[in-house]
Amino acid sequence: xxxxxxxxPAPWSAELQPTYYVVRDAxxxxxxxxxxxxxxxxxxAAKLLTKDEARRIAANIAKLPTMLRKD
Length: 71
Description:
Elements: E1 13-16, E2 20-24, E3 30-35, H1 40-46, H2 51-62, H3 64-67
Antiparallel strand pairs: 1-2, 2-3
């Protein structure tokens, strides 16, 4: 059976936005949004991540295609 083309082509990237990171595939399709806040009051009230936590999560999501690649 021939393999079908990938629906979300690699490489994926994590891009910083003012209040979130967005993970995009090679075609620019948005795959994930990871919101953050560095305001402690807002973090506690809305249970938001810190900027560093959001960056690490976005970076790990962006690595998925290479980690799951079949050789």
